[in-house]
Specification:
The chain has 77 residues and is mainly alpha-helical. The chain has 3 helices and 2 strands.
Length: 77
């Protein structure tokens, strides 16, 4: 189940995770339709809208992809 919104504290925790994680080698395949070819750009493009409006429902796919990437990084650690 994907959380549709994110608190500022959850956003901070997620940002901290990626700030402390080593940059990942690309391409990264989150699923058949989502391929990350620029790791830094992916993070910036996902965190900017969340910082501006973390509880907007339209940001749910961003949250979902960030959480998937986090799980992938953790599973490969």
């Amino acid at each position: 189940m994907v959380t549709l919104c994110m608190t500022l504290e959850e956003l901070k925790q997620l940002e901290d995770f990626f700030a402390n994680a080593a940059p990942q080698q690309v391409p990264i395949y989150l699923n058949e339709a989502t391929i990350i070819t620029n790791y830094k750009h992916f993070l910036e493009s996902h965190f900017l809208p969340l910082r501006l409006n973390p509880d907007a429902k339209v940001n749910a796919p961003l949250i979902h992809r960030l959480k998937l990437l986090k799980l992938l990084i953790e599973s490969n650690a």
